[in-house]
């Protein structure tokens, strides 16, 4: 599967953005889909993911109540709606697809930069 993230930009604190991750090659229904981010000088961290098995969703604590992950299988796209953005959300956001077949295999798309100014 190939992944292409888009939707990043420069916004003010309190604004919203919606990131998209368009997949090609395989259906996203076969993968656990997630969003990760890496801020300057920091390690990559998981933001949110949605299970291929039952659609269950997990959020990193700092984004709970502000970010919403969703998937549109017909469009083969995963979204991350980000509301009430804060300067600390500034990072390069990457989408990720993972599949278990005896072992985990992860696929990554190129990132999209989100910059939030105060």
Q: How would you summarize what this structure contains?
A:
The strands form two sheets. Strands 2, 4, 5, 6, 9, 10 and 11 form a seven-stranded mixed sheet that branches. The protein is built from no helices and eleven strands.
Task: Describe this structure as you would to a colleague.
With about 120 residues, the protein is an all-beta fold. Helices cover about 0% and strands about 55% of the residues. Strands 2, 4, 5, 6, 9, 10 and 11 form a seven-stranded mixed sheet that branches. Strands 1-3-8-7 form a four-stranded antiparallel sheet, with no helix packed on it. Strand 4 and strand 5 (about 45-50) form a beta hairpin. The N and C termini lie far apart (about 35 Å).
Cα distance spanning the termini: 37 Å
Radius of gyration: 14 Å
What's the story with the biggest beta sheet?
7 strands, mixed
Helix content: under 10%
- Mean pLDDT over the residues: 96
What's the β-strand tally? 11
Note poorly predicted spans.
Answer: none
Strand content: over 45%
Tell the overall outline: globular
Helices and strands, in order, run as: EEEEEEEEEEE
Structural class: mainly beta
Counted by DSSP, the helix tally is: 0
């Amino acid at each position: 599967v190939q992944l292409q993230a888009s939707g990043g930009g420069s916004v003010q604190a309190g604004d919203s953005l919606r990131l998209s991750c368009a997949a090609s090659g395989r259906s996203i229904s076969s993968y656990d889909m997630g969003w990760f981010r890496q801020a300057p000088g920091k390690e990559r961290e998981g933001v949110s993911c949605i299970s291929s098995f039952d659609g269950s969703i997990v959020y990193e604590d700092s984004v709970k109540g502000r970010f919403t992950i969703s998937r549109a299988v017909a469009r083969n796209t995963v979204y991350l709606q980000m509301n009430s953005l804060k300067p600390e959300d500034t990072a390069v956001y990457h989408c990720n697809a993972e599949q278990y077949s005896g072992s985990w295999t992860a696929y990554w798309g190129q990132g999209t930069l989100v910059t939030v100014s105060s």
